[in-house]
Amino acid sequence: MLTKRLRTIAELIDSCNVVADIGTDHAYLPITLVKEKRTKFAYAVDVNDEPLGWAKKNINMYNCNNQIQTILSDGLDFVLEEQIQFIDVVTICGLGSTTILDIVKKDNNKIGKYIICSNTEVSNIREWVFEKEYSISFENFIIDSKKGYWVIVIEKNKTNLIAKNDISFGNKKYFTNNDEVIKYYDNEIKKFEKILSKIDVEKHYNSHEEITNKIIEIRGYLNEINKID
User: Fold this and answer.
1) Model-level pTM?
2) Using CA atoms in the order 163, 164, 166, 168, what is the torsion angle rounded to 10 degrees?
């Protein structure tokens, strides 16, 4: 039932009481988490009525009505409601990092941690984690249906605090010898080199220098994560 990216998220949840899946779509993730006893209860949350209609049909089909509640809400707005107590894990999957950042900025002390899966690079989310003095306990980059996804587990503790110099690319320990992320950055270099080839250095010196420096940064990071322990 689950795509590779959603299976990756599910495997990161061992056993908890409550999960809230933001942007739940067909509610496949909450259903799987309940069926596999990874959570006792789940909220399937979406901002639109139509996907919630699909979610309700699937929840009913898999006999999960007593363990999954659908909620119409814009992101985390529903968490402020009095009847919502504590949510162990909030999952946010398949959105861009800018949208995800807008959602987590409504962070609430009723939420234990976040597991996100973004279809765009996530330096802005790492920066938010750094500023909040939260920590990142896991990162990954995966390819699913020929698309790249960044996976991050954000904990509200100081056990794995993010360093400022890890904001751009993430801690290298999570990506060492990750063939998929190496290929991604190789393609980024090719993309930037193509742009450079079309820039007049004299007319656009600052832009040329900025892109050149970006290529140098990426190559430096690739050298680090390509190291074999």
Assistant:
1) 0.92
2) 160
